[in-house]
Structures are given as C-alpha cells and as structure tokens.
Amino acid sequence: MTDNVIEATGLVKYFGGFRAVNGVDISVERGLVYGILGPNGAGKTTTIRMLLGIIEPDSGARTLLGSSNPRDVSDRVGYLPEERGLYPGMKASEAIAFMGALRGLDWRTGRDRGAVLMAAAGLERVVDEKIRKMSKGMAQMVQLIGSIVHQPELIVLDEPFSGLDPVNQERLEGLIMTERERGATIVFSTHVMSHAERVCDRLAIIANAERRFEGTVAEARGTLPLRLRYAPSPGVGRAELDGLIPDAATPSGDGWSFTIPDADVAPWLSRLVASGHGVAGLSIERPGLHDAFVRIVGAADAPEAKADLPNKEAAQ
Amino acid sequence: MNRHLRQTYVIARRDFLAIVATPTFLLFLLAPVFMLGFGLVGGLGASGLADTAIDNGEMVAIVAANDRADVVTADRELRELFNGENEPPALKIVTARGDLGAQARRIAGNQEQDVYAVLYGDLKTPVILERNRGGNSGRYLAGLAETVLQSRASGGASLSAPPRYQSLPRSGPSNTLRVSLGFGAVFIIFLLTLMLAGQAVGMLAEEKGNKVIEILAAAVPLEAVFAGKLLAMLGVAILFIGFWMLLGTGGGIAAAVMIGDQAAAAGSAAAPFDLASFAPAIGWPAFLGLGFAYFLMAFMLLGAVFLGIGAQAATMREIQMLSLPITIFQVAMFGLSSAAANAPQSSVATVAQLFPFSSPFAMAARGATDPAYWPHLLALGWQGIWVAIIIWLSVQLFRRGVLKSGPGLGLGRRAEAQDS
Questions:
Q1: DSSP letter string over B160-204?
Q2: Which residue of B has its CA nearest to A103?
C-alpha cells in the first residue's frame, strides 16, 4: 500500500472557455521532493490550487494527506503562493506568527520558531522590521518561513525561486533539503530546470494543461537518446562514413554527431573502432533535464508528435 | 476551541489590531464631531416630533347630543382667533352617556391617543379634566363652554360658576412619547451603522491588493475570513461605542428634555418631561438590551452585504464608487424604519420588521410601543439566519468571481487563467 500525500486523478479546470488544466494525474509519495515543471501558462498554479482546495476542479478527484477535502487537513500543509503576499504593516515576527496561527499554531510558539528560522536564514536583524521596509527577497523569505513555521507534513511552494538572488536561491534549496530531512514532503513548481535537477526526487512536466511526463529526473533525461560524437582520422570524408554513421548525423566540429539508444552504446563503439577510419575523437553525452524538458514540452506543442512521447498516457 | 472559531478569531484578531493600532484610529475615534452635524438633523427631527405630538393630541368635550351643534359652532368661531402655529389641538366631541365622570376618565386614559383635557357635565357648571394643570387646553375648553352659553343668550350669558378643574389620571407615558422613543432608537442605530458598517466594503481590498487573500484562502475557509473581518469591525464598533457611550447618554437625555420643553413651550397640555414616565413599553432594561442586540444585527447584516459587495470590487476606485449606493441603501432602510416607528400598527411597520435589512431598526422601534417579548426573539433569529445567508452568498460570489472557482456567475468578469 502506497503512502501518498497527494493523489489526484483526472483534474480538469476551465476558466470560462479556456481550458487551464485537462485531466492531470499526480501522485506524490510521502517524504519526497516533487517538482511540477512546465512552461508559463502550462497549468501548474491552477493544478496546485486545486490540490490545495483553493479552487474546486470541474472534474476529477484528489486527496490530500488522505482527505478528499483539502480544507480538513489545511493545518498540516504549508503553502507559498506564486503571488507573494504579506501585510506590509506587520513586523516579520508577527507575519510569521500570523501565518502559523492560521494553520493552528499558537502565536507565541510561532514567534519563537519564526525567530529561530529567521536566524537560520541569516535574517535575524530584520525580525522586528516591518515588511514594507524589507527588500522583495527578504519579504519572500519571511513568507517562506511563515509557510513552514507550523512544521507541516506537506509543503507546497509555487515558483519559490523566482525573485530570489542566487544566494537566497541556494538558501532555499538548503531549506528544502532540511525540511525533507525533517520528514516533510515538498512539492514545488518551477520552470528553472537546474533547481529541479538538484533537489527533486520525482517530477511531473505539465504542458498545454496536460501532464506530459511523470518520473524521476533520470527517467526524464532518459526520454532522450544518448548523443554520440565521433571524429574520424583526419582526411576521412563523409562519403567514406556512409553506412557507418546514420544519415541523420550532423557535422560537429571536425566530426559528426548523432543519437543512439542507451542499449546500443557498446556495439556502436565496437563498430567505430573496427571501421578502420580511426578515432580522433569520441564522446557520449547524456542529455540534461533542460533538454528533456524542451523536447517534452516542444513535443506537446506539436500534436503529431504526441504519440512519440515515452509517457503515452500523459498524451491522451 | 472549535477549529473554525479559532480560524475566525485569528482573522478577527489580526484585523482588529491592524485597525486599532494605528494613528488613523484616533481620527476615527474622534469622528463623533460629525455626530454634532447629525445631532442637528436629529434635533430637527425631534422638533418635528414635538410638533407632531402637539398635532396628534386632542381635547375632548363630552356633551349632550343636543349641545353638539352649538359646541361645533363655538369651536369653529374660537379657532378663528388663533393663527396656524398657535391653533389649539383638535377637539373631539363625544356624546354623553351614563356616568360622565367615568366616561371622561376612560377617554383620558386611552393609551392610543394623547388627550390633553376633557370637558364634561353641564355646560354651565363644567368639569374639566386636564393633564397639565392650568394648561392652555383646559382654559380653551372653559372658553368653549362660555362661548356656547353666550351664543344662546342674546343678552350674553356666562358660566354660572367657574369650571371645576381636575387632573387627568396618569397611567404611563403617552403613545406619542413612545413613538418618539422608537424613532430615537431607529435614529441611533442608523447613525452607528452608517458610520461603522459602511467601512466593511473595503475590508477585503487590502488582502486582494497585497495578495494575502491567496494565503488566507489556502489556510482557512472563506467563511471564516468573512466572519472574522466582520467580527473585527464589530469589535472596533463596540470599542467606539463604549468610548462615546457616556457622552451619548448625556446628549440623549438632553435631547429628550428638549423634546418635552418644546412641547410645553408650544402651548399644549403635554406633560413636562419626566424620565421615569418616559419608559418604553417593554421597559428600559429590555429596550436598551434589545437596542444593542439590534445594533449588532444591523451591523452584521449591512456589514456582511457591504463586505460581500466590496469583495467583488477589483480596484479602490470601484470601492469608492460603491460608497454612494451603499449610503443610499442605508438611508432607504432608515426611511422605511422611521416610517414604521411613526406608525407602529401600520402595514409599513410590518414590512419594515420583516424585511431583513430594515428589521433590526424597525424591531428596535417596536420595543418602544409593544410590550411583547416573543416578536424580538423571532426577529433576532430571523436576522441571524440572514446574516449567515449573506455571508454564505458573499463567499460563493467571491469564490466564483474572484478566485475563479466553480462556474462563473456572469458578473462581467473575464475569466482568466491565473497561472504561471
């Protein structure tokens, strides 16, 4: 029996005549860091808002922490919305305590924990500063702390890295990993692949309102074949390589580049070495998440290519 | 504490402190300076009521059937001596039957109608029951009897003996005074709700403007957000009222004294002001308690409506534009309730007491003239139901119109995907 903190099937949401989310399925196991990736307007935020019960889906079902009514478990969830919002007249400590109190934490504990978390984030000097006097990045960190101050089981962060400078982005990555070590499940959306690649255990890629991929980072990268770059001995022309490398091979420096399936690496290397054209250069490149994302999202934009996607059920 | 109550409390606490702990609140607290202006309006209304009291009261002449025509003629002749402002109260002529003294006391004791003086007995030796000893009404009736006698005898005749004056029995405050009290209750509740409830219209603008609404909507039910905001504003209102209660009480007593003085100065036989005799039908403790309860209900009802409407507004400009229709709506409820207060038995009063948004005002006025308790219990329950209905409706509209959850209600908003 799985221990999923989120279980959603067939989520659909229309805004007027616009289909924002179309049949998205998401399952998130307890204790994982789960990324929801997608380009702008893909439906990530709408999906998150449906998962949290902020808006109701037009169809589909979801359970959050085992409850079909997300409202019933809201005290066990932390949420950082995409559009950051704090009361400008509040001090940072009050804002954190208020956000904790909304989720059932008593005010005093909220203030105390908030001070500790602020110090951990290097913000102890602005604990009693009003939000309106803070930089955008600082206020964002305050809000993030406010969303985890009650030590929730599930933390949902919508585009948490946007608006943060590199130092704070690194701090946030550290905070995500700390919360994971505490036992929390973290779900976050982003369209910056580097963060997802570093911290996500699993991820879903949403494009055009539909889920196009679900799996680990490695599985996502595995949706693309390896790229082999081969440079023969000097003087060997393209015509001499006919039959050895694919017709689709493209020039790359002083050699040729083409894709091969993972399973074919060894035979290919043997063939190239045995061909008699020499090996001036040889490299095998594993595509990054960025490449996989671009291909998956790009394929989603091209209807005729959907059938080629590895996760066919997502293309329906 | 129940989870929903706790969530409501968190919202209310934040809002209450956000309002009170600002320098602006001091300005708000001193707003009763504006009440002076309203006081003038109220004074004019009270003056009108005093005049109404004079106009509504009457004198009664209990005479034999064959004296009726002469009395009517004499009354008409005498009234020609007075101009409009000084004209005596209306004269009601009643045919004498049985024990005249008992008949006179029965007429004088009628709580539905103010009777300033009653004349009965033989016109040559009349007995005059009067409310205000030595008042104008009693002297008018004496003059009326003498005029009748003079018109019958060509040589001129006069009373064979001076009229015998007796004081009217007092069985409680007059209906007119109670109507005035009812109007006063309507006016005070209206004034407070006008100053306080209207502010609810912009209470969600802050959350929408700084995007906190998303955090609130994710953490607590919107019903708790709305109810918390209403309670916060109610807390501010109660603080405000408490601060000014003493001054308001003093002003109210002074105004009441003025009403009595004006009525006496106008020459009627109305009794001089006596606070003890100015009691509402339901009694002072219940009247004041109900008045407070109805203020809470009026505040919650109108506040919930304004909060719900304001929550739909997308910009501060829209909120500012809403202030005029909101004020007009409140004034309309005041007008309806005032009409009800001035005519407690009328169908207008029934409508005002049943219509949810005028019900608190009209029912407060009812306490002044009707001693029954049970209608108030029903009314408070009825109004409470409407508070819940309005909050629920406001939440549904907000959820669909602003959060874009569920089918649209065709409010003219373009549905947009709020997505990244």
A1: SSPPEEEEPP--S--HHHHHHHHHHHHHHHHHHHHHHGGGGGGTT
A2: B219
Burial class (CB in 10 A: 0-12, 13-18, 19+), A310: middle
Best CA proximity match to A290, nearest among A207, A201, A195: A195
CA distance A313 to chain B (A): 24
Nearest neighbour of B417 by CB, restricted to A46, A81, A83: A46
Which amino acid is present at B133? R
Show residues of chain B in contact with A49, CB under 8 Å. Answer: 418
Q: What does the block give as tokens for A64?
A: 């959050």
A55 neighbourhood in chain B, CB within 8 Å:
399, 403-406
| Enclosing H/E stretch for B59 | strand B58-63
Per-residue pLDDT of chain B (420 residues; tens, 9 = 90+): 688 899 999 999 999 998 888 888 888 887 776 666 666 666 665 555 555 555 567 889 898 888 888 889 888 888 888 877 678 888 888 888 888 888 888 887 776 677 888 898 888 888 888 877 777 888 888 888 888 888 877 655 666 667 777 776 555 566 677 788 888 888 888 888 877 776 777 778 878 777 888 899 899 998 899 999 989 988 888 888 888 877 777 777 777 777 666 655 544 544 445 555 667 888 888 888 899 999 989 988 888 888 888 888 877 788 878 878 888 888 898 899 888 888 877 888 899 999 999 999 999 888 888 888 899 999 999 999 999 999 899 888 888 777 765 544 433 333 344 444
Does residue A280 sit at the B interface (CB-CB below 8 Å)?
no
Residues B417, B282: Cα–Cα separation, whole Å: 57
Average pLDDT, chain A: 87
Measured distance CA(A243)–CA(A260) in Å, rounded: 15
Taking the C-alpha atoms of residue A125 and residue B46, their distance in angstroms, rounded to an integer, is: 61
Q: B interface mutation test: which of A24, A54, A188 has the most B CBs within 10 A? A: A54
A46 in B contact zone (CB under 8 Å): yes
Contacts of A247 by beta carbon, 8 Å cutoff, 6+ apart: none
The answer to whether the Cβ–Cβ distance between B414 and A16 falls below 8 Å is: yes
Q: Which two tokens stand for residue B321?
A: 């534009």
Q: Does B221 touch chain A (CB under 8 A)?
A: yes
The pair of three-digit structure tokens given for residue B317, joined into one six-digit string: 């400009």
Count other C-beta atoms under 10 Å from residue B52's C-beta. 17
Name the nearest CA neighbour of A219 among A125, A287, A170: A287
Using a CB-CB distance cutoff of 8 angstroms, which residues of chain A are in contact with residue B10?
98, 101-102
| Closest CA–CA distance from residue A21 to any residue of chain B (Å) | 10
**Cα B313 to Cα B256: distance, rounded to the nearest angstrom:** 42
Angle between helices B347-354 and B374-401 (to 10 degrees): 50
Distance from CA of A171 to the nearest CA of B (A): 22
- Edge-to-edge strand list for the sheet holding A255-260: A250-252, A255-260, A226-231, A281-285
Task: Give the whole-angstrom CA distance, residue B90 versus residue B268.
Answer: 11
Whether complex ipTM tops 0.95: no
User: Of B249, B241, B281, B251, which is closest to residue B364 (Cα–Cα)?
Assistant: B281
Q: Which domains does chain A have, with CATH numbers?
A: 4-220 (3.40.50.300), 225-285 (3.30.70.260)
Predicted confidence band at A200 (pLDDT cuts at 50, 70, 90)? very high
**Residue A292 · residue A241 · CB < 8 Å:** no
**pTM score above 0.80:** no
Question: How confident is the prediction for chain B on average, in pLDDT?
Answer: 79
SS3 content of chain B, % helix, strand, coil (to 5): 65, 5, 25
Whether A85 and B215 lie within 8 Å, measured CB to CB: yes
For residue A11, give the H/E element and its range: strand A4-15
